Amino acid sequence: MAYENILFETENGIATITFNRPKALNALNGALLDEFSLALDEISGNEDIRVLVLTGAGDKSFVAGADITELATFGPLQAKVFARKGQAVISRLQELAIPVIAAVNGFALGGGSEMALACDFIYASENAMFGLPEITLGIIPGFGGTQRLPRLVGANMAKEMIFTGKKLPAAEAAKIGMVNKVCAPESLMEEVMKTAGMIAAKGKVSLRAAKEVVNSGLGTDLGTGLNMECDAFALCMASEDAKEGTTAFLEKRKAVFTGKLK
Ligand code: CO8
Fold first, then answer.
1. Whose CA is nearest to atom 6 of ligand 1?
2. Candidate from 21, 25, 28, 168 with most ligand 1 atoms within 8 A of CB, to mutate
């Protein structure tokens, strides 16, 4: 389908969604969120896509937050509807069956940081800036930032960022565990695609199980999480991928995974 606010490409099992409103530093408005949701539908319905990469158009910004022009017109009820819409689509992103990598190539502020936080991990360019500056607008994060950031970096670090609204350069974001890898701007996509390619070559069933177990386990106690791991492990053993992976090892060859459950 044709999109106006995002670009959607797939190559070698890797889908890339590029937020594409460069004149507004790729700010998230309602139309963009609707298109993003449709693209997630497309991805969920395409068995050949194994990894999703998110990035921003241009060399300045990943996403500079919710569109403040639109936000400024909202009354409380519209604000609640918009916050729910953003939360719903960002939660769908987090729950996508395939791994998602954020390639943060500049500003990731407000809703931009919140979008990146819902990805499985973040690579960032040296010029990337993270932050939840909503407090400087007299509001608070509304696309999950008050919940996902403390879960990732701890409550105190998250509170300092949320209370001050300060921007964190990529290197500092990496120090607190928000960012896995900081790259030169010109090599960011190459590095992301290298990692995405490594993941895309793995078994789809085991990737899905691993993602589900890590995400679900974080919301529960250790015992329950370990039980989830046992169940998911058993399910993986029923897959053709597990047969292929173990057989390939014993035959001293590279595994070729199909992602099919028996
Ligand atoms: N929304 C709309 N337009 C934006 C946004 C934005 N978030 N960010 C930048 N733009 C526009 C600017 O208005 C400007 O447009 P124009 O050229 O027409 O004047 C253009 O992008 C370029 O921006 P600047 O000239 O400001 O570029 P600078 O390099 O000087 O500054 C910054 C870049 C630092 C990123 C600056 O633009 C900025 O501070 N932007 C706002 C960042 C921000 O506060 N983000 C948080 C928004 S609130 C949010 O995300 C809440 C999410 C939950 C919502 C829940 C809903 C109820």
1. 67
2. 25
Q: Which domains does the chain have, with CATH numbers?
A: 6-200 (3.90.226.10), 204-250 (1.10.12.10)
Residue range 232-243: average pLDDT? 94
Residues 45 and 155: their CA atoms lie apart, in Å, by 37
Cα-Cα-Cα-Cα dihedral sign, residues 120, 128, 63, 199: negative
pLDDT digits (tens, 9 = 90+) for 166-202: 999 999 999 999 999 999 999 999 999 999 999 999 9
Task: Give me ligand 1 centre to Cα 109, in Å.
Answer: 8
Tens digit of pLDDT for each residue in 246-262? 999 999 999 999 877 65
What residues are in contact with ligand 1 under a 6 Å CB criterion?
Answer: 24-25, 27, 64-69, 71, 79, 82-83, 86, 107, 109-111, 133-134, 137, 141-143
